[in-house]
Specification:
The protein has 17 helices and seven strands. By secondary structure, the protein is of the alpha+beta class. It folds into two domains: 231 residues, Endonuclease III, domain 1 (Orthogonal Bundle); 133 residues, Nucleoside Triphosphate Pyrophosphohydrolase (Alpha-Beta Complex). The strands form two sheets. It has a four-stranded mixed β-sheet with strand order 4-1-6-5. Strands 3-2-7 form a three-stranded antiparallel β-sheet. Strand 5 and strand 6 form a beta hairpin. The longest helix has 16 residues. It binds a DNA duplex through helix 4, helix 5, helix 8, helix 10 and helix 11. Keywords: 4Fe-4S, DNA damage, DNA repair, Glycosidase, Hydrolase, Iron, Iron-sulfur, Metal-binding. One of its GO terms (biological process) is base-excision repair. Its cofactor is [4Fe-4S] cluster.
Amino acid sequence: MDKYNENLTDVKEIFRKGDLRAIPKPLLKWYDNNRRILPWREQPTPYRVWVSEIMLQQTRVEAVKPYFQRFMDTLPDIAALAEAPEETLLKLWEGLGYYNRVRNLQKAAIQIMEDYGGRMPDSYEELLKLKGIGSYTAGAVSSIAYGKPNPAVDGNVLRVIARIRKDDRCISEDKVKKAVEKDLWEVIPKDRPGDFNQAMMEIGACVCIPNGAPHCEECPLRQICLAYEDRTQQQYPNKAKAKERTIEEKTILIIRDAELAVLHKRPAKGLLAGMYEFPSMKGFCTAEEVKEYLTENGLQVLRIQPLEDAKHIFSHREWHMKGYLIRVDELAPKKVGPDSADWIYIEPRETQDRYPIPSAFAAYAKGLSMQLGIPRTMF
DNA sequence: AAATCGGGGCT
DNA sequence: AGCCCAGATTT
C-alpha cells in the first residue's frame, strides 16, 4: 500500500493532472519525512538563510557545506560582514567560484547597516533592492526566514513544474520564470511557504533530478505529473544549450628565489576579479622564451624546470596550461620590467592562508612548496 | 536578449 | 565530453 495513496486519491478527485494546486499537500507530507538535515536549516535566522542562499546560487548543497559554518564563525553577523577586508571575504569564498557573490554580499551588508539600521529587511520588495539578491533569493529569504508567502523559483523548481505540466517553454527565458513565479503565487500555502519552497527544491535535487533518470517511483507527485503519465520525464525541461567554450593557452610561471615567490593580483573586474594568481605568459612558451621574458623583467634565471600540463574548464572558457618552476637569484629589489611592477613577493608558506588563489591554479600551487634542488652553497 | 561569471560531480 | 547546479548582474 502506497503511503501517499490516501492523499493522492483525494487530490485526484479534485484536480486534473498538471494542476499546481494539487502539489502542496503531498509535497509537504513527503518533505516532513524526507528533508535533509542541513546546517542553515537548523537556525534559519535571516542572516544565515541569506548567506546560505548566496552560497547556493548555481552551487550544489554538498559544495557549500564546508564553507558555510566557517563563514558564520568568522563573520557571525551583518555588522562583521560589512567591515571585513576584501582579502578575508575572498579567502572565505576561495574555491566556491563566482567571486562577485561575496563582494555583493558585503555591499548588501553595508546597505543594510546604512539604510535599515543593521536589520535585514523582511519584504520581497526591500530584499530585491539589495546587491546580489534577485527574485529567487528574495523569495527564499522572505519565505524561509520570515514566513512570507513568496515563491522561490530556481532551476529545480522550473524543472519540476515543466515535467508536471509537460511545459515545452524554454526555462532559460526570463518570461517563463516570471510566469512560473506568478503561477506558484496562487498555490503556495500561506501557513508553510518556506517549507513549500524548500520542498520543491528538495524534490528537484533528490527525486526529480536533472541528469539521468528521475526517481519517479518514489515521487509523491507522480500521480499529478503529466510527463510521468506517458513516461516523457526526460524530455523536460526544454532548455537552450550552452554556448561553445573558447580555448585559451597560457604558460604559468612559478618564480622563486631562495626565500620568496611571486604572485599577482588580478584586476578588479572580469574573470576571477581580485583573486591572486601566478605570473603567466600568453600561449605555450618554451623555456628559452620564458627565460627571455624574465630577463626583460630584470631577473637572473638560475634554473627552469618544466611542470606537468594542466587544464581548467570554466563555463564559457577553457584554460590549457603549461607550467615552469623557475629559480632566480634575487627577487625583491628588482622592479624594472614592464610586468614585474605589479608583482608581489610572498613567502611560499604564507600563501596558503593569506592569499586567495582560484582552483584554476591548483595544479601549480603545489610548486610553491617544492624544493628546487639547488644547494645553498652555490650562491 | 545575450553575455559574463567558477567549480565540481555525474552521466 | 556534455550537462547542470537553492542565479544575478552587466552589456
